[in-house]
Write a structure and sequence with these properties.
Helix content is 43%, strand content 3%. The chain is mostly helical. A two-stranded antiparallel sheet has the order 1-2.
Length: 145
């Protein structure tokens, strides 16, 4: 019961890839200094995240869980900002990317989860409204009710 999402860096609330796109598409004379500074940080953050993902994957390649030729495309897919930061990568997409995933869980996991039921989130069927209650606005010049 988990979901994988992209690991693209965010700088000041913006996707690093989007900041870099602005710098790539606009003439530098039309870009303010703050955006240029953010782009420098974004470039560094993208490289750091890509190196981190590469490091995470390096043990899977020798075990043949990930084909060596799939590593760089996988890193790009997860870090490049091709989807929004909150995008959930489905099991099918993860398999297409070359990730060694399984959606099978042993029965013991389900038994364990049954021991910790989640509280239901719902609205109360009865709502308390204090009295006197009058939602009509008071006419101008009158005393409040």
């Amino acid at each position: 019961m988990a979901v994988l999402g992209p690991v693209d860096p965010q700088i000041g609330g913006y996707a690093a890839a989007s900041i870099l796109q602005v710098v790539a598409e606009k003439p530098i004379a039309e870009i303010d200094d703050q955006t240029l500074i953010l782009a420098d940080l974004a470039r560094k953050a993208m490289q750091q995240v890509q190196n981190f993902v590469r490091e995470l994957l390096k043990d899977e390649v020798p075990k043949r869980k990930i084909a060596p030729e799939r590593v760089e495309p996988l890193i790009q897919a997860l870090t490049s900002g091709r989807v929004t930061h909150d995008y959930p990568i489905t099991a099918e997409e993860a398999r297409e990317l070359g990730l060694p995933i399984s959606t099978e869980l042993p029965p013991q996991i389900y038994a364990l989860m049954d021991l910790y039921p989640q509280a239901s989130i719902g609205r109360p069927s009865v709502q308390y409204i204090p009295t006197p209650y009058d939602s009509r606005p008071s006419p101008p010049g009158s005393r409040s009710r």
